[in-house]
Amino acid sequence: MIYVPSKEDYACYVVQSEGIIRAYSQVPSNNRTISYRDYFINSSYIYKDGTQQFSQYATLPTCLNSQELTSDVYYRLDLDKILVIFLIMSIFGIFIPIKIFSKLFKRGGL
Fold first, then answer.
1. Burial class (CB in 10 A: 0-12, 13-18, 19+), 10
2. Closest CA to 53 of 29, 32, 24
3. What pairs with residue 50 in β-bridges?
């Protein structure tokens, strides 16, 4: 399975290169200008928008089978980075404040 953000928003997905998936708003056809979005897989799925014109002599790209695509977050390639950041934020946001408050408000009081 290949993870693509917002799978339902685009009609056609094409693998441009090793780290780029291009999503077309419409299925490419000759003599048309179609808008697209390039997703950079290895850069946390940042994207760049653009348009591409297909002339009558252009070789049209082959769309990926929709069964190979998913928008399920568990298939993201950067999930490990997300989990590490979440763990670090949890330690600083939950564990450390609990330790501080437990030392300030010890039992036995004033």
1. buried
2. 32
3. 36
- The predicted model scores a pTM of 0.74
Over the stretch 69-110, which tens digit does the pLDDT of each residue have?
988 888 888 888 899 999 999 988 988 888 888 888 876 444
Phi, psi (rounded to 5 degrees) for 84: -65, -45
3-state secondary structure labels for all residues of the chain: CEECCCHHHCCEEEEEECCEEEEECCCCCCCEEEEEEEEEHHHCCEEEEEEEEECCCCCCCCCCCHHHEECCHHHCCCHHHHHHHHHHHHHHHHHHHHHHHHHHCCCCCC
Render pLDDT for 22-68 as a digit per residue (tens, 0 to 9). 999 999 999 999 999 999 998 889 999 999 999 988 889 999 998 88
